[in-house]
Model the fold of this input.
Amino acid sequence: MELISRFFRIPDGSCFVFGPRGTGKSTWLRHQLPDALYLDLLDPELYRGLTARPERLHDLLSGSPDTGTIVVDEIQRVPDLLTVIHSVLEGPRPRRFIMTGSSARKLRRGGVDLLAGRALHRTFHPFMAAEMPEFELSEALRLGLLPLVRGSARPADALAAYASLYLEQEVQAEGLTRNIGAFVRFLEAISLSHGSPLNVASVARECEVERKVVAGYINILEDLLLAFRVPVFRRRARRRTVARDKLYLFDAGVFRSLRPRGPLDAPAEVDGQALEGLVAQHLRAWAAYSRDGARLFYWRTPAGTEVDFVLYGEGGLQAIEVKNARRIGPGDLRSLRAFRNDYPQADAALLHRGAARERIGGIWLLPVADFLRRLRPGAFPLPAE
Done:
């Protein structure tokens, strides 16, 4: 597969680059930094050597005295290496370190040295539609946008194997849970909550484990970067809102691969969840790559009035609703109108599966595929008046 240009920009100084496996971090960095020294901690020999003696890093750096940038892949595998990196950064000849990770669990726990602010934290995401030479919405909903999957000769098989890869190489190998069967049941149960306010007790009943076990499993998913939360927007709220965050799996294809389906599961329901998740992952990547402090929220009242996404930052306030429908009726705009009644300064749009681009009562009606293709970091996504 031809290397696709990405919106991610490498900082000038040292940084952590976190992202799930398969997002293309390593391949892209090797292309962007061909003269860097690469230390791949998935290499068994290098892993054993640095685990036994992290200070061996000094020897490796001495062997490449003219190399200014060092890329350390999967830094979470040898957390003690960060203490040595810290000493290099404070030494007489500091180097630039780019440290990638597909799990933040070990680095967030146990008092690991995170370089005391000497390295920025950045995130790497699946493809955005605007990064792809050809973007097909139906294919994105079926297969997702993971480079590992989309670059495979058999993408459907690669997607089906993705969850097993994590179960074997992360969950089991790292001993994150003793009951792998219960965790597999949890993955199916949590996929049913994709894009919904998170109800831990309900998920616990679904997979027949205790509530605190499910809370721990959710922490594992977030630490492995496989899921993310979207909080409720409450800034200067004029009415009560719900308290629960929404939870999304990080890629629409991964959601589809985990979501159980049967006679009681309407295809439109699953497609709707996948479409909302696809928009969520795009807006999350847009916010991360824009670097202007914009944040992603949703809005929901106790009465059930909900706007799927709210973007808030220096660039503005925008409300976005997603409908898996080709035709939009007046009732579909009710939630956006309620939000604009409370926040009249907000721009608003409803994304749909049709082809019409309209503006009704100050609210945009936009084809979702076009919206995703036009979404680029650096500017708020909705069109100007």
Q: What stands out?
A: The radius of gyration is 22 Å. The mean pLDDT is 91.
